[in-house]
## 1
Amino acid sequence: MAGMLESLAELKTFLRIVDEGSLSSAARSLGLSVNAVSRRLALLEERVGVRLVNRTTRRLAVTDDGRRFSERCRRILSEVEETEEALQPSPDKLSGLVRVGLHPLFVDHGALLRFGALLREHANLALHVVVFNAPVDPLKEGLDLVVWGGDVPLQGVASKFLAVMQWVVAASPDYVARCGAPARPEDLEKHELLRALRTHPERAWILSDAQGRRKTVRVTGRFESDDTATLAAALYAGLGIGLLTRGEVRRQIAAGRVIHLLPRWHFLDDRIHLVFPPGRLRVPRVRAVAAIIQSIAEGLS
């Protein structure tokens, strides 16, 4: 039994090294000396018989074997945590760390208020949030939950459908007062459109109506960003016409911040999923955070 506990400590130390990117950072977060962390890593490598991490005095790099091994370690430790959680006498008292990968839309003021309320209710609960404009693999990134737009092609993960988010065309009252409002989709080409920058600048919007008709609009504009939150801020600031989720537009119309343009047309329907390592939702603290994410998604749809 003692050997097994020692092995679990080595696994946890190894994952912390992978997540932190250095022995010294891992040592600080674990409250150990760098020598102790290095020794645990060496013992683990000796036990498994392969090099997991290449390290020099200046840098650290996880090997391919180390990357594959870390994914297995996360699943093993996840199952151990689930077993420990099931034995807790007070399941209503949440504790531990939940690591979450969220889209920028899920970390606005209202969402943070909900997360804050959960943290105030459970003093021993901690939340680690990483914001991504594009979804990531929760196994590779060491995350408990990831918000994912579109189909989920990943292997070895579980997923849960959250909501359909529909993106619509909007602008600030200031922009409409200065530049007017488009009456038809084609009129958008005469306006400053806020462009998403991914691997290349956005060149077209494909709009649809309730009858299934489609219109392709050439996107012209002098402001572009790879960050959804920045594009939304630019819209509110009157820099141009952009795209917001239908739920966001409803809230911002009530606040007097936006005007819904071309209400018979919408940009696209985005199916949003929650992606997580198998079995992770059985952990009460992860399930509690997932419930908040579900409610945020429903509010955006």
## 2
Amino acid sequence: MKTLVVIPAHNESAKIAEVIRDLKKFGYHNILVVDDGSTDNTGKISQKCGAKVVTHVVNRGLGAGLGTGFEFAKRNGYNCLVTFDGDGQHEAKDIKRLLFPIQKGVCDVVIGSRLLAQKGMPWQRLIINHISNFSTLMLYRVRTTDATSGLRAFGKKALNQIKIKTDRMEVSNEFFWEIRRNSLKFLEIPIKAIYTEYSEKHSHNTASLWQAVYVGKGMLLRLFR
């Protein structure tokens, strides 16, 4: 399958080259970095490493970055899309296992779940993750073990049918709303996450109570959009 790896990135100059090199080592050369209003050299470093780069003039948020990636994939004829964080949290070798069920026609979407193989997740993240999972079940009627995972794979049907309408971190939950709305089949596969001081500071999923409240508000509004 013609697969695009989309990396939404904001001020990831310290890690982005390492992330791109790791993806290429495992054979993923179609890489799009969505530089979401970075004030550092994220975009330039990504281009130098051979990735395609689309730049947002201002920081619009995770959802806007992924939305740009989805539109790029559809316009350029990709039939599979993988989302991948730019902070070094994920391992490129896990992508193959996510793509396999899609290639076999078993499902349309695969979520890499950090909680199916839970090990070392900081307690703040663990609490927020469980709150997010519960909110996804209550509002969208979809049961998941990792609503905030940044490593996901989407087949052609999902790529064409999913419509991203949120701009910020609630996009992670919005994917499950879209899965339900479009009657898409999805699986969860355990993945290993690498937690470092850097990833805790730069991750889109940094845990905070106020963030959880904001995401919950965005999830509610999505029901009426």
## 3
Amino acid sequence: MNDEVIRVNMLVEGQTEEAFVRDVVAPYLNSRSVFVNYRRVETSRRKERLTGQTIISRGGIVSYGRLRNDVLRWLKEDSTAFVTTMIDVYALPSDFPGVAEARAKVNPHEKVAALEQFFEKDIAYRKFIPYLQLHEYEALLFSDVAVTDSGLRLFDGRSRVAQLQQIRDQFATPEHIDEGATTAPSKRLKSIFPAYDKLLFGPLIAATIGLTKLREECPHLDEWVTQLESLHQSGNQQ
């Protein structure tokens, strides 16, 4: 039996995704002997004139080219680890591979599968596992609208669970909630709870819902976590 240590480096879009990985995904995978490191995607780097120190800014997707460079850099820096991503489909940069082809697909799961296939082909590393979040992080918060309502009504004590449920009932899964400029998951939440703050409440609510429920409601998320947790089993087979 091969006792190879399985490590996964996760490149995430922003602080909210970073907190979600830290508090929800990483502990689960670590308990299954898949050890997780994570960092936000690089947006810029520059050298200080006086010290020569490289200053790196992180958080947000400014272009596919910069994201691609960040993925490749981590794969080369830490070649024994897998690298995966957690990037929103919503507002993907126009230079992302396969955007035109994916846009022609009606089913969101077919769309994201196409985007991930193009992404994987472009990176072309065996240990790269692309994951794009449908359509954005806030979709996860529609996995249990009662929990989301309980967390967000702390602002004023007034429940909006019926409004949240009405939105949820329109879609087969939370991942089907669209990416319109005013109807994306985050826009819908903000219209119901104007004081909603993604970083402050997003990770806490998702953690309260729990990964089991999130996976039950969000099949694409479940596929990703299943693929990652299976790395230990496949890595320790002769």
